[in-house]
Design brief:
By secondary structure, this protein is of the alpha/beta class. Helices cover 24% and strands 22% of the residues.
């Protein structure tokens, strides 16, 4: 299936989930992440979910990272340049939703992409080869291309993979893992 059809299909599937299902599935994903071989890493980039889009609730993962004393990085998107700026999440970080309902840090201690060891990546769909479909703005592909080559890229999905995304581009960055409530897919 192509990206346009997949976006439509998975937005509808996500919209059919209840708040309770989102919480249960998000917790299951967080518990699966505990089994991944990444806990010796230091800098973890995580997205803050757009609740209106029924994204995976990353609060459970944030608690795990905090409990393991990891450096947590969150981003702010610039829609004019299609670039993200990354900030250290601290007790003093103020989060505010932008006009697209994306929770973002207002400001803080900036962290370069090259420092990030692990990136949790939002997505609508993914395939068995580790390709993902996002909202189509290219923010994450640009960001992930700036990370160090051995940065671990982990997609989070409520749903299992599609067989194949048919219109993958050269600039699309593949995932290393994708975690669903039932499985860990390794690529």
């Amino acid at each position: 299936m192509d990206k346009t059809a997949l976006r439509k299909k998975y937005k509808a599937l996500r919209n059919s989930l209840s708040e309770n299902e989102i919480e249960e599935k998000s917790l299951a994903i967080a518990n699966k992440i505990l089994t991944l071989p990444l806990w010796e890493q230091t800098y973890f980039h995580i997205f803050l979910p757009i609740t209106e889009q029924k994204e995976v609730n990353t609060e459970f993962i944030l608690h795990i990272l905090s409990g393991k004393d990891k450096e947590i990085i969150v981003s702010k998107a610039d829609f004019a340049t299609r670039k993200m700026t990354h900030f250290l999440l601290t007790d003093n970080t103020k989060i505010k939703k932008n006009e697209y309902n994306i929770p973002e840090p207002i400001d803080g201690i900036e962290v370069p992409s090259t420092k990030i060891d692990v990136a949790f990546v939002p997505l609508l769909a993914f395939d068995k080869k580790g390709h993902r479909v996002g909202y189509g703005k290219g923010f994450y592909d640009a960001f992930l291309s700036e990370c160090k080559p051995d940065a671990i890229k982990i997609g989070l999905s409520f749903f299992e993979p599609e067989e194949l995304i048919t219109d993958v581009f050269e600039g699309d960055i593949r995932l290393d893992y994708c975690v669903t409530p039932n499985s860990i897919h390794s690529f």
